[in-house]
Amino acid sequence: MKKYVIVADATCDLSEAFQKEYDIKVIPGHIKTPDKGEISILPGWNGYDRDKFYADLKKNPDAYTTSPANVEEFRREFEKYALQGYDIISLTISGGISGAHGFATKASQLCKQNYPDVRIACIDSRRFGPGFGLLTVCAAQLKQQGKSFDEVVDYIEKNKNKFHQAGWLDDLSFVAKKGRITHPKAFFGTLAGIKPIGEFDYNGLTTVIGKVKGAKKAYSVLLSYIEETIENPSEQIIFIAHTSRYKQALEYKEMIENRFHPKAIYINDVHPLCGINIGPGLMAAYYIGKPISAELSQEREIITKYIESGE
To answer: 71 near 77, Cβ under 8 Å?
Structure first.
């Protein structure tokens, strides 16, 4: 079986430790900073202080912008591995959010002109940030288990709609402005104590499927929601991600551990490249579950049931 590598763009938001543990190759993205400079950046804090970064971002959300690796950067990365005799599985942020998938696809065509025997699968993850990261880790786990190039590609394409988000966003107006949420009612993000519950849709955008008053009730509703949507939790790695909400993420982690006993559960910071488009106030779990329904109809019903029941 020919050897292959898994390459993801930097919006997978996987720390250096995860990259090393699962042998995931990450292509940097770009940030334009308040001083109008541009830097190439991988997941990590790169000299920023997490809480200060999010405080500054909240005050001036337009000061930072992001862009993915361009076609030439993808091509160079692909050719580096093609030269070493590897086939390539490329995973990118949702095409509903970014042009990265199109850039990777074009780069694969250019790479094949110089290396006609290389196989390159360009997969649109239909996810972003921590959800995309978890999907990438799952692909890498399959590779470590000895699965073939085709088996990994087939699994991800068939199952990417099973990667869930269950958490809240304190400030919908920020993510609405950055285009990471659909049909927002942003004013709910300004009401004290309201927790808008978000889930991924088919395009990898976050959609609000319910609104809960107070963190205590929100945790209860979210745990019940996970219970109805997760599959085989004891066999899973679960991510909990946050943007300057570490205390809440730690509480959520303990609740999920006690209720579902997953194989592993990690609290992950959302680093600047993704955080710029999410803003402060995200606290969510990411896991594999039942396929997400069209228009999130089933997911809305589940959330509504537990909100109305008072659980």
So the answer is: no
Beta strand pairing status for 163-169 and 181-182?
A: unpaired
Alpha carbon distance 179, 182 (integer Å): 8
* Alpha carbons 274 and 205: distance in angstroms, whole number: 13
In whole angstroms, what is the distance from residue 230 CA to residue 236 CA?
A: 10
Using CA atoms, how far residue 279 sits from 50, 55, 117, 256, 298, in Å, is 12, 9, 43, 24, 28
Determine the straight-line distance between the first and last CA of the chain, rounded to whole angstroms. Answer: 51
State the pLDDT at residue 184: 47
Rounded to whole angstroms, the Cα distance separating 168 from 191 reads: 14
Amino acid symbol at 295: E
Q: Which two tokens stand for residue 250?
A: 């730690």
Q: Alpha-carbon distance 257 to 262, whole Å? A: 6
Q: Which residues pair with 289 in a beta bridge?
A: 230
Low-confidence stretches of the chain (pLDDT < 70) are 173-192, 310-311
Provide the pLDDT for residue 304: 96
- Cβ-proximal residues to 46 (8 Å cutoff; 6+ apart), any chain: 39, 271, 272
d(CA 113, CA 264): 42
Kindly tell me the sign of the dihedral angle through the C-alpha atoms of 303, 240, 97, 144: negative
Q: What are phi and psi of 127, to 5 degrees?
A: -145, 170
Cα-based torsion angle of the residue sequence 51, 56, 61, 66 in order, rounded to the nearest 10 degrees:
-70
